[in-house]
Amino acid sequence: MSTQDIPEEENLPAAQDKHAGEVAVPDDPFADPGLPPHEPRIQDIDEKAARRSERAVAFMFTLSMLATVGFIASFVAFPVDKIVYIFPLGHVSALNFALGTTLAVALFCIGAGAVHWARTLMSDHEIVHERHPIEATPEVREQVFQDFRDGAADSGFGRRKLARNTLFGALALFPLSAVVLLRDLGPLPEDKLRRSKWAKGKRLMNQNTMQPLRPEDISVGSLTFAMPEGMSEHDHDFQTQIAKAALMIVRIQPDNIKDKRELDWSHEGIVAFSKICTHVGCPISLYEQQTHHVLCPCHQSTFDLADGGRVIFGPAGHALPQLRITVNDEGYLEAMGDFAEPVGPAFWERG
């Protein structure tokens, strides 16, 4: 029997043996498949669709501007203590809710408008650059600048004036929200930091007994704390006012006072200085009677009360303000005016 007479089924094992162990291997399993063919967007081929996208972008930027205006209006319109019910939040501050909502809308619309602009109106052609050395050649730098110019042209920033101008409006208006927030940090101080409750004719009141002080109440070597007449611990702004008006009084032998102005502003060696340290505003309470020095317990700034309250050690920036005092017709110590300079840290010297 010839091989031609053998059935096809009988030749199959021989064929399998011939190709046994052979596996089909692709040429390069890690080959770069490349980018898929670019498919144009509807905005690329239909100018009406492009204009619709531009109007959508402008709408979002305009909505951002309106939300910023709403933020400022909410700040003015809603009182701080107004509470409203909003489902599902429950009872919330109307001011906080309005500020948060309008600020979120203003931010979201700027971002959403920019993203929509990039996805629908800017060029979406994929650009591939091979890796290159870190130091660019002049040709590469020129190519980068050219790519930037091409990107600016492709973005339509100069051609899409409606979207561009509303973007500028949203970005210009949104920072006003920050101005309002900063203004909300507190009322403007105006001249409040420069003035205290001391005034001409106000008696010096012992802060412990709340009784007016006479010269004979102040002994040599003692330290007495005082405040202006008319102040009370029950006043709603007592802590604010005492932080500027707190006074310490000592009696020094007139011969030991070195500063002539201090001597002129005293009464029989009784001198009155601000109790507030000129470093960061801590209250001074430690007095050394032999040296006439007072020490701030916070950062150890030391002042000489016999020499105009000047700084002799520590980080304080300037001398303690002195209060000019005298004795009235009834024999009580009284102020002849306010402090000559603001008390506390030397903010005013920076002006």
TrEMBL record:
In the bilayer, the protein is annotated as:
Multi-pass membrane protein
Q: What is the protein's major site of localization?
A: membrane
Write down a Pfam family by its short name: Rieske
Q: Which cofactor does it need?
A: [2Fe-2S] cluster
Rieske domain mapped to chain residues: 263-334
The answer to whether UniProt assigns keyword Zinc-finger to this entry is: no
Instruction: List the InterPro entries.
Output: QcrA_N (IPR045603), Rieske_2Fe-2S (IPR017941), Rieske_2Fe-2S_sf (IPR036922), Rieske_Fe-S_prot (IPR014349), Rieske_Fe-S_prot_C (IPR005805)
Explain the purpose of this protein.
Answer: Iron-sulfur subunit of the cytochrome bc1 complex, an essential component of the respiratory electron transport chain required for ATP synthesis. The bc1 complex catalyzes the oxidation of menaquinol and the reduction of cytochrome c in the respiratory chain. The bc1 complex operates through a Q-cycle mechanism that couples electron transfer to generation of the proton gradient that drives ATP synthesis.
This protein is called Cytochrome bc1 complex Rieske iron-sulfur subunit
